Fold this sequence. Notes:
Elements: H1 6-11, H2 36-47, H3 52-67, H4 72-78, H5 84-91
The protein binds zinc ion.
Amino acid sequence: MSCSHPLCERIGGACSLAIVRSHTCRPNVNERDVAAEVLDEVRSLLSRIDEREAAVRLAQIVRREALDDRNLVAFARGEELDFADQLAALCTKR
Ligand SMILES: [Zn+2]
């Protein structure tokens, strides 16, 4: 039943991070870097992640970036961003 993402457990209901990829081939033309304004929003959401609204919004962002082939957790870790560990803890299955 549970997808075991801590972030989804906060939000409740079905998995908020699962993405369904289409199986059509498409050229990978997306930016690999996450936009600075996205990172700023993630940082501010993480600072008030106890609010359900912030958790829902964060899940939306993580999912949207994943659909664009950007892994926010991996990016944050690669860039050694201050919130990388907190984000990873929320988005990694237990
Ligand atoms: Zn989940």
